[in-house]
Amino acid sequence: MHIPDGYLSLATAGTMYAVSAPFWYLAVSRVRKVLTNRTVPVLALFAAFSFVLMMFNVPLPGGTTGHAVGGTLLAIVLGPWAAVLGISVVLGIQALFFGDGGLLTFGANCFNMAIVLPLVGYFIYKVIASNTEATSPRRLMGAVVGSYVAIVVASILTGVELGIQPTLFHAVDGTPLYAPYGLNVALPAMLIGHLLIAGPVEAVVTGGVFAYLQRSHSSLIKADAPKKKEGKLWLLWGALGLAALATPLGLLASGTAWGEWGVDELQNMGLGFIPQGLQKFAGWWPAPLPDYGFPRMGAVIGYILSALVGIAVVVFLLWMLGRWLSRKNLPKQGVPSKEESAG
Amino acid sequence: MKGEGFLTRNISSFTHTLESVISTEDLCRALGLLQGLDPRVKVATFVLFIVMVGLARSLSILAIIFVLILTLSFLSKVSLGFFLKRVLLFIPIFTAVIALPALLITPGSPLVAIAGKIIITEQGARTAGLLFLRVTDSLSFGVLLILTTPWTKILVALRWFRIPPLLVDILGMTYRYIFLLLHTANSMFLARRSRTIGSFSGGENRRWLARALTTTMAKSQHLSEEVYLAMLSRGYQGEVRVLNALSLKRRDFLWVAFALIAASILLWSNHL
Known about the structure:
Oligomer: heterodimer
Strand content of chain A: under 5%
Radius of gyration of chain A: 23 Å
Structural class of chain A: mainly alpha
Distance between the termini of chain B: 56 Å
Number of domains of chain A: 2
Number of strands of chain B: 2
Largest interface: A-B, 70 and 86 residues
CATH architecture of the largest domain in chain A: Orthogonal Bundle
Order of helices and strands of chain B: HHHHHEEHHHHH
Order of helices and strands of chain A: HHEEHHHHHHHHHHHH
Distance between the termini of chain A: 37 Å
Radius of gyration of chain B: 24 Å
CATH class of the largest domain in chain A: Mainly Alpha
Strand content of chain B: under 5%
């Protein structure tokens, strides 16, 4: 799943760095808070461990072998944010010393394998494991399912990143400049490989190690229930970011979203006439970002920016609404600061 | 799969990794062109070069860049055979396999036609060639940087570029402990191998693997605690201090000038 340099255009690679940066920032500040001065040695040793884990050649039933990433396992043992940093460091060393993954594509590789993978895996693990004790079989199931789903999700992202290249970046005569296969080839190719081989390898390794941890080192499994709601809240933010990132996919769809036709499109659709009321209102609202695009900017960047601006506006409005509602419920006292940050 | 094959394969891949890194460290100390440059200058210019490779739009430019890389590696006392083996062995061959179907399925004007049927199109050949050369060029720059720069110097350069010190410290320590843990894992496999005379079932191997991994993980955890205490006793307060007496010399400025000129020529050629 390590994308080497040359497969992604600079615009995609740059966007992926920009998308990963806030996650890294968040991870650094959160890990520092929990581990304080222990951060460096603990993360270094566990990153070294996951490097070794990735090198293990794992036999699958049927004779094939593969390598695991171990992101979900690391997230379960160290916590999701420490896993984000640990795996990012491993990917950096792999890119520098072993040419496994490029330097420009480092942002994209980190987003797929070091950010989305552990966060998704950990989220699923937490949902399935719930508040059971460390040795519960439900936890084992959570680890297995979480690791399998997480690596498949990461492979989908990789497939999308590769698959949008020929559509968005090609020479004048149509020759693809970077990865040559469109979504119709790249996505199934990544998916099949990961559903059938890499996914099972990940599940076998995570499940095997987790089961052994339960028996002999159950202290390494943090079985305490999350005290703050925040932990899951941030995961939702992650999911939102992911959705925003996928917006350039909209560029690939032909036609207009159902129910969002413009006036001239309605005419072409064989409606024959235009509802008068519609004609009257068409164009009365000068949208600041017409057709979700900043003028004279790369379509993808424009699309993502539009998505981010849209999200920011919606989040701000909801936040105001939440603040207003919580104020209404607590009319006499000032709003406690905790509530504000949770809103 | 037979037990022995599984163990041997793991042992050989661990040993190969250890060896390939150790062989690099000698080259960093050779007295060549790139070894003499300031690490900050080298990191910055090599990133610039990789970006330029990403921007290039023609096969001939990418081919010229590869010739340039080979010249640089020759001037830096990296033997050609070693360099090519190191660069071409994995990723470009893998890329070539990936690019092969593009050669055949991309629509366009015919390049090779057999019995009136278009086999390879011009666009197909260009697509496959662009991908292969771009991947090879970018990878070569990365390999050349690592072959000619000691790891500690790269870390100093990263610090200088304002990469958060926490990350640089983790990066440096991880690299050091990777070899310890690889060595430990390798010993576990060797010990198992030396006790194995028959063969094991796949399930048996997987269970053993899980135990080996868990043991390695528990060891890392234990070690991290000990390392932390060792750091504390040496006065660690959450910050690693390093000596970084770097100074730019005349050849560094010359090199930067060369890099900028090369980059501008490449940018200009994209508009031809």
